Amino acid sequence: SIAHEINQPLAAVITSGESCKRWINRAEPNLDEARRSLDRIIQNSARVSDVITCIRALSRQSEVQRQIEVFDEIVSDSLTLMQHDICMQQVRPHTQLGAPGARIQGDRIQLQQVIINLIVNACQAMANVHDRARTLRIQTSVQDNEAVLEITDSGTGIAEDILPSLFDPFFTTKPTGLGMGLSICRSIIEFHGGRIWVSSEVGVGTQFLFAIALMPVSHDE
Ligand code: ADP
Fold first, then answer.
1. For the whole model, what pTM was predicted?
2. Could you give the dihedral angle defined by the CA atoms of residues 100, 102, 103 and 104, in that order, rounded to the nearest 10 degrees?
3. Residue having the nearest C-alpha atom to atom 13 of ligand 1
4. Is ligand 1 within 6 A of the CB of residue 187?
5. Rounded-to-integer distance, Cα 29 and Cα 154, Å
């Protein structure tokens, strides 16, 4: 599927390059059409570049840090980074950090990447919601020796038949989506020995959850 995702825009670059040449080589060159071809070349090249960035993010898994981190701090830092975006989209965030002191072992930056991705998706799912409040609930807890994060939105929801494909690489329902976000999220969470899952109801909203094992409490402290 990676080959397909790269070959498709590359083929479009070649076709647009050829038609650009034709528009310019005419007795009376049509610069407007040539410009449009160039725009398509730029757009498609940017897409190839995005795909490669995502693949690099996946292959970097092997170099992840394994530090002891306070789970709630990772979540609140991610929220701080996203505060502006959330406000801009008229989304009301409700945060409940209910895992004080819970520590996990992992890569802070990568886990923030997961949380930010889930928040961006949640906000995008609420962009067309006008008949109810756009609420984003972010809640942490400790359950059965795991730190759990729940991100709940009041967005469009997800049809039951596509739920099993959500975490597949390149699965997207967005016109310009890349469909790598959730696939990267899952790979990061699984690398941390955790699990990520989703529940959703069309017209009501979606809830993404992930759980990562807690660090055992040291008795020397
Ligand atoms: P992308 O955002 O590029 O489409 P993702 O892998 O992040 O890629 O998401 C895959 C698909 O999952 C999205 O296209 C969308 O259909 C669905 N999705 C993800 N998060 C949500 C959400 N919070 N609400 C509704 N649909 C979602």
1. 0.84
2. -120
3. 172
4. no
5. 52
